[in-house]
Amino acid sequence: MTTALFSVAGAVAVVAAVVVVVSRRIVHAALWLVLALGAVAGCFGALHAEFVALVQILVYVGAIVVLVLFALMLTKAPTNPLPEITSGRAPFAAAVAAVLALILGAGVVLAFGNEKIKPVTDGSATAVGTQVFKNWVLPFEVLSVLLLAALIGAIALSQRTESAQRKKED
Amino acid sequence: MPLVLPLLLAVVLFCIGVYGVLARRNVITMLMSFELMLNAVNLNLVAFDAWRVDEATGQTLAIFVITLAAAEIGLGLAIVLLLFRGHGHVDADAARDLLEHEEAS
């Protein structure tokens, strides 16, 4: 049952990810990214990681995609199809991705071809909370400092442009 | 469920992200491809966590990676807006301010 659910969610994720990467309309790509990330959240759910699935929907779909759409709006990105959406390196990039997929896929199949995931029944929020506050307290606190630094950095970047441009105009 | 299934899905998603980062010109699309690659990593972490019946160490690390992704996209989009204000475009190929000239021109 979980295998079937996982397969459906995984197929949706792969199709949506391909559309994100090849779509000519950038806003459509951002909206397909919602579908891809939501399908990956479904995969997390099928792997009995409900808490990670919920955080994925909350942070990725709720915050990151909205942020990307805001950036698209602020940069007045061309929302209609463009002739040159990819650079001249596109065939090279496709070759690199295909070779990488081949190598990684072969390695994964050779190493873990016969392993099975046993189904577990209990939820995961309790276990994650226990882990965070028992074994991973210091990384958790460092992450909060990192988020603060990213916040201050983003504000400083946007402030600096205005003052720099004013200096240039003077 | 065979363990290979989530691992192969992660490989495919990661390689789609690699193609997007290498091939696309728009910086925002490149950032979206970064998100796909980080999701592949999360899928690996969660799959291995479900395989070793561990006390959710992999899921904790996946949550940490999601937090890092949020910080990364915030700073990345701030830099993209900076590029747009300075140059009027978000084309990665045309952003050549840091280009090193090999010959003294």
From TrEMBL, chain A:
Keyword Membrane carried by entry: yes
Parts forming coiled coils: none
EC number: 7.1.1.-
Organism domain of life: Bacteria
GO molecular function, one term: quinone binding
One GO cellular component term: plasma membrane
Catalytic activity field: a quinone + NADH + 5 H(+)(in) = a quinol + NAD(+) + 4 H(+)(out)
Subcellular location: Cell membrane
Keyword Transmembrane carried by entry: yes
Residues passing through the membrane, by range: 6-22, 29-47, 53-72, 92-112, 136-158
Keywords: Cell membrane, Membrane, NAD, Quinone, Transmembrane, Transmembrane helix
Top EC category: translocase
Family under the similarity heading: Belongs to the complex I subunit 6 family.
Descriptive protein name: NADH-quinone oxidoreductase subunit J
Species this protein is from: Kribbella soli
UniProt lineage: Bacteria, Bacillati, Actinomycetota, Actinomycetes, Propionibacteriales
TrEMBL record, chain B:
Protein keywords: Cell membrane, Membrane, NAD, Oxidoreductase, Quinone, Translocase, Transmembrane, Transmembrane helix, Transport
UniProt GO cellular component terms: NADH dehydrogenase complex; plasma membrane
Keyword NAD: yes
Function in brief: NDH-1 shuttles electrons from NADH, via FMN and iron-sulfur (Fe-S) centers, to quinones in the respiratory chain. The immediate electron acceptor for the enzyme in this species is believed to be a menaquinone. Couples the redox reaction to proton translocation (for every two electrons transferred, four hydrogen ions are translocated across the cytoplasmic membrane), and thus conserves the redox energy in a proton gradient.
Protein name in UniProt: NADH-quinone oxidoreductase subunit K
Primary location group: membrane
Protein localization: Cell membrane; Membrane
Encoding gene, per UniProt annotation: nuoK
Keyword Oxidoreductase found: yes
Family to which this protein belongs: Belongs to the complex I subunit 4L family.
A GO MF label: NADH dehydrogenase (quinone) (non-electrogenic) activity
Transmembrane region(s): 61-84
Organism: Kribbella soli
Catalytic reaction(s) noted: a quinone + NADH + 5 H(+)(in) = a quinol + NAD(+) + 4 H(+)(out)
NCBIfam families per UniProt: PRK05715.1-2 (NF004320)
